[in-house]
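Protein in question passed on here:
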Amino acid sequence: MFSKQTYIERRQELKQKVGSGLLLFFGNNDAPCNYPANTYRHRQDSTFLYYFGQKREGLVGVIDIDNDREYLIGDDIDIDDIIWYGFVPSVKDLAEQVGVSNSAPMTQLEVLVKAAQKKGQEVMYLPPYRQDHMIQISDLLGMHPNKTREMASVKFIKAVVDMRAIKKDIEIEEIERAMEIGYEMHTTAMKLCAPGVTEKHIAGVIEGIAMSKGEKYSFQSIVTMHGEIQHGYPSTAPLEAGRLLLCDAGAESMEHYCSDNTRVTPISGKFTQRQRDIYSIVEACHDLVIEKAKPGLKWKDMHLDVCRMMTDRLKDLGLMKGNTEDAVQAGAHAMFLPHGLGHMMGMDVHDMEGLGQNYVGFDDEVQPSTQFGLNCLRCGRRLQPGFVMTDEPGIYFIPHLIDLWKGQGLHKDFINYDAVESFKDFGGVRLEDDILITETGCRVLGKNIIPYHIDDVEAFIAK
């Protein structure tokens, strides 16, 4: 937990941004896995953590801006819980730890909400992403659970996004701690990468590192020889000589800040020439972002610059053809890059995505696209100092997508389908690092950079 003053100042700034009303922050409850007493590992809601700091389940934070009162709502645990889980401080004590003056049992939440409504106060909450919260909001405010997301307060959402998007020094320090764990995860995966070792074994080892060194892993690890599958989760398949292993994994620090990196390792220890050709394009696109990203640049423009470089280099290999600008404007390159360049990262690996991507990654100036590939760009807005972004270009050869587009004659003026056919067994390459936007440019986060240049990767494996 950060200092008490940190949470006090965050709530004070939020009150000034929103101006008036009653703000509700729903902390997460335990979620049953396959029967009530066997729950998934608890993870507190990120926005609740940001303003109220406490990790315990079954809490709701309340800020009454008009009357300048703050509450931590929740029930104290009883002796039965203590027997099983040990002593837990009272809700009053938890409130005092983060500078909240008032506490109350959960039954009082409805009392506070009804009193605010009676006085004409606006009651605001953030979009719920759990069913139990939808039901709780439904009961409190008298609406169908299916309506709860669309009725969330836009004013409240935008105020939270404005604050959480700009990472303070203490937050960057936490991300760097997660990066240290991520470095160990990825270098361990590279060391384990050899014919006969299973994807699942590597995933289990690196997720164990995340669990032992931090809070947990920041998302389910992607460890696969099928790099063309965006979320290729590990199987029991043994690694095969001559193929590539894609590992997309990250850690979460003890204060719940994330890392997110992707590396590709040749299973035989050295890249083939064909693998070098594709990998070097992704490597160049990755480094272009580090060179060019800076405050004021629209992330959408950065994405399109990467797409142009990728198209030019794919043309050099004979996989694409025609005018580069026309190809990118038409979206032909998206057969090879069907996702966006990167996303914000912080307490959530896709930071604040639960609040609504249009509010997080876009604004009045830059709106999402409906074009295939570009519609998966999670952020397009202008960069600001303090933003943390993932830099993750990739090239993928997805057999079903190739067959579909070829059968439709789609973008035949820009894609050399005869040449692409010979790459349908290739898989995919993605390289990902996390960058902090500074006052003048950007820097790659992490004290140690996971090897990714071709010669460095081969040299690391050889050792």
In short: The longest strand covers residues 59-64. The chain is about 40% helix and 15% strand. The mean pLDDT is 97. The chain has two domains: 4-165, 169-462.
